[in-house]
Amino acid sequence: RAKKLMQTKEAGNAHFKSGKYQEAYDLYTEALTIDPENKIACTKLHYNRALTAAKLGRLNESISECTEALNIDENYQKAILKRASCYMELQEYEEAVRDYERVCRINKSRDNRRLLMEAKEALKRSKKKDYYKILGVEKTASIDDIKKAYRKRALVHHPDRHSSASDTEKKEQEKKFKEIGEAYTILSDPKKRARYDRGGDMDEFENGFEYARYQESPFEAFFNKSDGGFKFQFSGGRENFPF
Q1: In-domain check, residue 234
Q2: Shared-domain flag, residues 120 and 172
Q3: Any idea where the J domain is (predicted)?
């Protein structure tokens, strides 16, 4: 059985090297049935199937095969790294970070630490709010474009316009109104915008953005101008905004 297993595995490797990934996958699958008690061989075969599945674009299957390998050998670094890379491709960054942290506990090599850092950065970027998208403007938008977009969206989502809506809808509109205010506060300030565009940490700007704050600023400051600019007020659910 050992000889047949090795021959089948090597045949799979040959197909893999020549780019015949499905044929390789099928041979690795066949090899797994030859001697299922050979844990070392099965670990490598599951890993080989993971590599092949990834080449075929079947990333979730590749993840499953890596997990099968790790169920046999929990410290199999190649399987951890491959699974993490699949998670990265699928943009499942939290899972990727967990796997890279796991492999770093086994081997704190420079490459492993670099991969962990990259995964953490990707996770951080994925959670970063897209203020340009929130306002519906391009990244090259001028300050006038940003002001126009803010005015338009703030009027649509102002909570007073949804006073008769359901509680769920009210909360959703308040959330959108708050995000619009956050976006305007950052993008209308050249220094904050530049820092945001560089990918800087915006936590200090985002923390403390309470809904009550937006009832006065920037909304009030933007609309209730006395210099012939915009005026805005709600009265009995009706708006009056001569621009």
Answers
A1: no
A2: no
A3: 130-200
The CB density around residue 99, as the number of other CB atoms within 10 Å, is 25
Helix H or strand E encompassing 239 = strand 238-240
Picking from 127, 150, 166, the residue at the C-terminal end of a domain is: 127
To the question of pTM greater than 0.85 for the whole model, the response is no
> What range does the domain containing 189 cover?
131-224
What number of H helices and E strands is found in the chain? 14, 2
Neighbours of 46 (CB within 10 A): 23
Separation of alpha carbons 178 and 128, rounded Å = 15
Q: Which residues contact 118 (CB under 8 A, 6 or more apart)?
A: none
Angle at Cα 213 formed by Cα 212 and Cα 216, nearest 5°? Answer: 100
Q: Are 159 and 170 in contact (CB under 8 A)?
A: yes
pLDDT for 140-175, tens place per residue? 999 999 999 999 999 999 988 888 889 999 999 999
R_g of the chain, CA atoms, integer Å: 28
Work out how many domains the chain is built from and give that number: 2
Which two tokens mark 94? 């939290």
Question: Which of 68, 94, 127 delimits the end of a domain?
Answer: 127
The span from the CA of 49 to the CA of 11, in Å, is 13
CA–CA gap between residue 141 and residue 109 (Å, rounded) = 43
